[in-house]
Each structure stands twice: as C-alpha cells, then as structure tokens.
Design brief:
single chain, 279 residues, alpha/beta, Rossmann fold, ProC C-terminal domain-like fold, 13% strand
C-alpha cells in the first residue's frame, strides 16, 4: 500500500519526525521514498543523518513529485504554506494534515479545489509510537485514501475514524489528554513521596500503574468500572481511596476538563481561520 509511494513531510518537527520514524521502523517504506522539509538547515541535517531520508528547504520542490503530502507545520503558518503549494499540487495527490483547527474543506479549496484530504489528530505519545490518533475524511477522499492514512498513523499507535464535526472533541480528549494523565502521574508520585517513598521509585510505580491499567482496558475490552470493581475489596484500601476521590470530585473534574478543552479548540479554530484569512 505504501512501499512504492513517494511521501513528502512538509514540516519535520517532533510530530513529523515521529511519523516518518514510525513508517521507517515499521518498514512500510524505504528512506529513499521520503522527503522532509524544515526552515532550519541543521534540523534537516540531523534527519538525514538519523533516518537517511532526503530533505529540502523548499516546500514546493518536496511536494511536487509526492504521491502523499503530510502537512506537519504549525497552524499559524498554514496560509503561507498552502499558498506556496497551490501552483504545483495536482488533483490526484493525497494531502494529510495534522494541523489542529484547520478543516479539510479549507485545505481543499486553498489548493486545487478537488484534492483528497484527510485530517488527523495524533497526540504526543506518537514520539514513542503509542499515539491515539483520530482521522476524518474530506469530501473528495475515497476508501483508498482512508486506508493509506490509517496505515500511516497505525505505525505510531492506534487509529479511530470519526466525523469531522467530532475533531474538536478529539482534541479535548486525546489531543490534550496526555497533560491530564501527566498531572495524575505527578500527583500519585507526590502521594508516594508524602508517605515515605523515594521520588524516583514513586514516579516509576505511578507511571507503570497508569500504563498497565490502560493496557488492561485495551487488551481485555472490559469496561473500566468493572475492572475497578475487581480491585475493590470490601473494607479495603481501594474503596477507602475511591471514597476520597469521589468526594473530591475527580470524575466530574476530568469530564469538565475535556468539555473545556473541546470548547477552546472550537474557539482556536475560528481564530486560526480569521488570522490566516481562510474563512
């Protein structure tokens, strides 16, 4: 599906490198098929040395011969990048965007008006190939484009297909979600230190507890509430702690966090459109 396709990464920051690294580590393509761009020559030299890919400072040159173009730049620069690409993009080229807040229609009509576009929202664990990524299809994207995008993002973790109207929710849940989990790990570690554990031991135990608990949900597909009950013995330590968490409002607090982040994502999307003249 991917091996013979030429892939251009427009922007090669942390997420761009995570994606190209995932593809190469999974052996889904050859380094010769990948070209990446960045505004920093030293960054491009590092990528060449590490991954043996081709690089360029010129977005137009990189995109011109590609079958798949991944937009991995900052959302604030997208209007400039789309203007650079407009004259050379062909209608059959697949464009995949990881830009928060920029819709598939915006990208389609800023280019040729008919390109297949897939929008994706991976999260930061992509750096260690354990991302949660949601993708949605633009109006000209077909099943073959969904399959290509899915395979690319599966190289860095799990993929869900959603409606584009749900992408702000995805941003609030899995896009911003790692920050919530980091706070939980930090708080658990603090609790361990308070009760006498060394910091490094407490942090390792806390992070492994979160990792293992999530893995159990994924692999057993048992509802989290059922798994929670399985470790909650009558009169035991877990039920005493759960009582405290419920009294402190942990559950509604996390729900509100997702709700607030979703609303902010919608606000930022509108601001980005206005600032980039993409309305």
């Amino acid at each position: 599906m991917l091996f013979n396709k030429k892939i251009a990464f427009i922007g090669a920051g942390n997420m761009g490198e995570a994606l190209l690294g995932g593809l190469l580590t999974a052996k889904l393509t050859d380094p010769a098929n990948i070209i990446a761009t960045d505004i920093r020559p030293e960054r491009l030299q590092d990528l060449q040395n590490k991954w043996k890919i081709r690089t360029s400072l010129d977005n137009r040159q990189a995109a011109q011969d590609a079958d798949v173009i991944l937009l991995c730049v900052k959302p604030q620069t997208i209007s400039e990048v789309l203007a650079q690409l407009k004259g050379i993009i062909r209608g059959e080229q697949l464009v995949i965007s990881i830009l928060a807040g920029i819709t598939t229609d915006t990208i389609t009509y800023a280019l040729t008006g008919k390109n297949p576009v897939v929008r994706a929202m991976p999260n930061i664990p992509a750096v260690v190939q354990t991302a949660a990524t949601a993708i949605c299809m633009g109006k000209f994207a077909q099943e073959e484009h969904r399959l290509i995008a899915t395979r690319i993002f599966q190289s860095i973790g799990q993929v869900e297909v959603v409606a584009e109207t749900q992408m702000d929710v995805v941003t609030g849940l899995s896009g911003s979600g790692p920050s919530y989990i980091y706070m939980i790990i930090e708080a658990l570690s603090d609790g361990g230190v308070l009760m006498g554990l060394p910091r490094d031991v407490a942090t390792r135990l806390a992070s492994q507890t979160v990792l293992g608990s999530a893995r159990l949900v994924q692999e057993t597909r048992i509802h989290p509430a059922v798994l929670r009950d399985q470790v909650t013995t009558p009169g035991g330590t877990a039920i005493a702690a759960i009582k405290e968490l419920e009294a402190s409002g942990l559950r509604p607090m996390l729900i509100r966090a997702v709700e607030t982040a979703t609303r902010r994502s919608k606000e930022l999307s509108e601001l980005l459109k206005q600032e980039n003249g993409l309305e």
